[in-house]
Amino acid sequence: MNRFTLCLITIATLLLSSCGKSAPENFQKTLQEKLISAKPGDVIDLPEGKFHFANTLSLTVNGVTLRGKGMDKTILSFAGQATGAEGLLVKANDFTIEDMAVEDTAGDALTIQEGSNITVRRVRTEWTRGPNSANGPYGIYPVSCRNLLVEDSVAKGAADAGIYVGQSENVVLRRNRSEFNVDGYEIENSENVDAYENVATHNSGGMGIFNLPNLPRQGGRNVRAFN
Predict the structure, then answer these.
(1) How far apart are CA 13 and CA 142, in angstroms?
(2) Predicted local confidence at residue 219, as pLDDT
(3) Spans of all domains in the chain
(4) 227: which of 76, 118, 196, 201 fits an S-S bond (Cβ 3.0–4.6 Å)?
(5) Model pTM?
(6) 188 and 165 Cβ atoms separated by less than 8 Å
(7) How sure is the predictor about 1, in pLDDT bands with cuts at 50, 70 and 90?
(8) Which ranges in the chain belong to alpha helices (H)?
(9) pLDDT value at residue 220
(10) How far is residue 151 CA from its own chain's centroid?
(11) Check: CATH 2.160.20.10 for 25-226?
(12) Who's near 57: CB < 8 A, 6+ residues apart?
């Protein structure tokens, strides 16, 4: 086999490989349909690629896992979002999200409300234009959750906090990185929280722990931040 023929074969192989990673048409509709029709115990695997969405994605089914190929390999981009504020809005129990990124949402990137047994693992939220007051306020934003784990995740560019935990109980935040946000981390009106081995760089504030009035849940306590 001469060098010219070998070169053509190599180019053809690379082209076919890249085609295999291309996003299917109307991936937004396909993914939202999977989220709506999911059943408890389902694992929704997302391929490698950058996928563009115009609307908020939502999940209300308990017991679902949403899994990508890596926080720099499976990217959900909401640049130019037309409707909704959040990127992904979850109102469900026993939910796991891992190995993907949510970028450039109009509002909060990943919102989880009133969920129990929640895991956020190796997720990146980012506004790719860098710090800007027009960015969404929160990257990872669980509120009123119970038994929550956020680990090995990255939050960049939020106009308020990169990772926020509010009015929640039994929480572990560990080995996360938060940078170029107003606050790296906020823990608010929450109980039984361990936050450790987290890194905050290039934020206005590193970590804020608050107990604020006029919120549905009062009396935050037993919050430890260490290492």
Answers:
(1) 44
(2) 79
(3) 25-226
(4) 196
(5) 0.88
(6) yes
(7) low
(8) 3-20, 27-37
(9) 87
(10) 11
(11) yes
(12) 28, 31, 32, 35, 76, 87, 88, 89
